[in-house]
Design a protein that fits this description.
By secondary structure, the protein is an alpha+beta fold. The protein contains five helices and 19 strands. Helix content is 12%, strand content 27%. Strand 6 and strand 7 form a beta hairpin. Helix 3 packs antiparallel against helix 4.
Length: 401
């Protein structure tokens, strides 16, 4: 529990939220509020936690305690650990870097500019939870949360019309719910020629839908860049990736902040046939400079990468290798756990960047501030993802929730 000792020592040196310098020189950077590093895709930073410091202590006389139900060792692993290795020597990186702060507010003109870029006809409506622009079945929603996350889509934001008082289903204005009492052929949108199938009668297999004529990767990137530019996102130094899907090409734009690449602060634009934006999401809050922090060093960052929990289920199509399964043992339980094969990921490069980390909500409230923390962005080959961020701020500046 080394971080506990560090936190106690740090707390005694804090005055007015700023850590007082020991040598009487410039003030040290402020201790950060409790941040949800788990939501940022970052495991606990301290080595003791990563090494399994929650194991119960031996009983007097050297007797081993009984394992408790729910201990981490007893839990099935959905995603096995990843072994990390270096393709070459680690680079020399700066030993200090600035953090940035993002709040939960944005100018209504910025929301309006984004709505216009998306082709929505309407002005933002301000609500306690954020801002909304609706245009038929399409809608833009910007949430009053840390970073002001926004999302755009069609046909998913309106409430459907349901039955009331146990009466018959009566479609009304707005998006119609499916009638749970009607056969499938009578649901809204079913064809007039649809006929119910007699019980026991074989059903002909459905014909697969032909894939739509998608734009090229370059065209999809151009559409996404144009949208971001017209919405006011600065693309200087941004990282842009295009991934393939069945019905869309997904463009991910990770903007640079203060010249540093970012992780977890991206815009995502799904571009369909004829270059139409089907859905999109991102952040609207403008980062503000925070304090400059000393860093743990890239070697320590790599050690923490090796001890971090695997990030399963976040791989992007066409980026990470396919998931391979071990066969279930004969006579074992079905379904069996632990079938996903372990990975060996090679670190091909590392950059100093920024990782988004929201503050921990207090008392059931919603997080209203987040930080872009200095982080080492490890470029990987063979892992579950192609980039992994490890926060580079020393533990003494982090407050544990």
């Amino acid at each position: 529990m080394a971080w506990v000792v560090a936190a106690v020592v740090t707390a005694g040196l804090v005055t007015g939220g700023v850590l007082v310098a020991r040598g009487g020189g410039d003030p040290s950077p402020a201790v950060l509020p409790a941040l949800d590093l788990g939501a940022a895709g970052q495991a606990a930073a301290d080595a003791s936690s990563a090494a399994g410091a929650t194991e119960p202590a031996p009983l007097p006389g050297g007797t081993e305690p009984a394992k408790r139900s729910g201990d981490r060792a007893d839990r099935p692993r959905l995603w096995p650990p990843v072994t990390y290795k270096l393709a070459g020597p680690l680079p020399s990186l700066p030993d200090r870097a600035r953090a940035w702060k993002v709040g939960d507010s944005v100018d209504a003109a910025r929301v309006a500019a984004l709505a216009t870029a998306l082709g929505l006809d309407g002005q933002p409506t301000r609500e306690p939870s954020g801002w909304t622009v609706r245009d038929g079945r399409r809608a833009l929603v910007a949430h009053r949360l840390a970073g002001v996350p926004w999302s755009y889509g069609s046909g998913i934001f309106g409430a459907c019309v349901t039955r009331t008082g146990g009466g018959p289903y009566r479609p009304g204005a707005g998006i119609q719910c499916l009638d749970p009492d009607a056969p499938v052929s009578n649901q809204p949108g079913a064809g007039a020629t649809a006929r119910p199938v007699a019980p026991g009668r074989p059903v002909a297999p459905a014909r697969p839908l032909p894939p739509p004529a998608l734009p090229t990767r370059a065209e999809a990137e151009r559409v996404a860049r144009d949208l971001a530019t017209r919405a006011g996102l600065d693309l200087t130094g941004a990282s842009v990736r295009v991934s393939n899907g069945f019905a869309t090409r997904t463009v991910t734009i990770a903007p640079a902040v203060g010249g540093a690449p970012t992780s977890g602060f991206s815009w995502t634009v799904s571009v369909g046939a004829k270059g139409v934006v089907q859905s999109a999401s991102g952040y609207l809050a403008t980062p503000e400079p925070a304090d400059t922090y000393p860093l743990i060093g890239v070697e320590e960052g790599f050690e923490r990468l090796k001890k971090s929990a695997p990030l399963g289920g976040i791989l992007r199509p066409g980026v990470a290798p396919a998931v391979e399964l071990d066969p279930c043992p004969a006579g074992g339980k079905v379904p069996c756990a632990g079938r996903v094969k372990a990975r060996v990921a090679t670190v091909t490069g590392v950059r100093l960047g920024l990782q988004l980390a929201p503050a921990v909500a207090q008392g059931g409230s919603k997080p209203d501030v987040a930080y872009l923390l200095p982080a080492y962005l490890f470029d990987l080959e063979g892992g579950w993802s192609d980039v992994r961020a490890i926060v580079a701020v020393p533990d003494r500046y982090l407050t544990r929730p």
